[in-house]
Amino acid sequence: MNYRQLGKTDLNISEVSFGTWAIGGDWGNSNDEEAIKGLQRAMEEGVNFFDTADVYGGGHAEKLLAQATKGREDEIHIATKFCRAGDIHDPATYSEEAVRRYCEDSLKRLEREQIDLYQIHCPPTEILKDGSVFGVLDKLKQEGKIRHYGVSVETVEQGLLCLDVPGVSALQVIFNLLRQTPAEELFPKAAEKGVGILVRLPLASGLLTGKFTQASTFAENDHRNFNANGEQFNVGETFAGLPFNKGVELAEKLKWIAEGRGDMARASMRWILDQPGVTTIIPGFKSVRQVEDNLGSAQVPGYDAEESRKLAEFYQNEVKPHIRGEI
């Protein structure tokens, strides 16, 4: 496993890490025993960073992480998120009283005394512009409740706003071959400010595995069903903002990247890892096999200049015009 410094923090984290949305809920049914085995397998292979949130399964993902990392709190770093258990548009959700309560509840579920990275969970732009929540996070950091803080953002604009806040150590962004825009301006500016980049949805909700067809369907409790068009939360969180059928069509045109790189998923994540400014990718998983598949992305060959040019042109000409919502 290779490790990268998370921006200006003292955290040296695995370049392939894991998100826990899928094992917490909202990706169809999951199996706790298999989830724990997957977490343990990842740690055996050197993964030392996991991303979660208080709303993943109503706190269930945090509890699974507590169970899997018991006794290894000093070496296994956990990032969690807050605000979406409340009304994200209400300033009261970001008050000291509310944030302190969210923090304490997460610490209890994680069975830890400190959160390594505490992130605001995709707040509206007006909350970031107001900025008072950052003062609350500064206070929690001074008290030792959190080690560092960051923001999970939906758009480049939000990311750039956060870079003006001295205490922000990391940004979590949607970035993949079907969502390349953040690399243009946001990543270079984040690097200048010493802000780490966590990449979520590296496989565009599974589109970049190349396994879906136009006939693929998803369970009722899977966000790829109930949020396919942004019905429940930001449309960009599902299929990177692309209509499903268009996403399948575009992914089909990218199948060439798998040649010499094992499979399309590994090839897709290798491309992300090669982008300047990226600290780690946080794919999801539901099984040990998926953990092992995702870990393989660090071992496959990168891309030459011609391949990189081809992928950039493909995004600008064929993908970007079909993305819904702000990028």
TrEMBL record:
This is Oxidoreductase. It comes from Saccharibacillus kuerlensis. Coiled coil: none annotated. Pfam families: Aldo_ket_red. SUPFAM superfamilies: NAD(P)-linked oxidoreductase. Residues 16-314 form the NADP-dependent oxidoreductase domain.
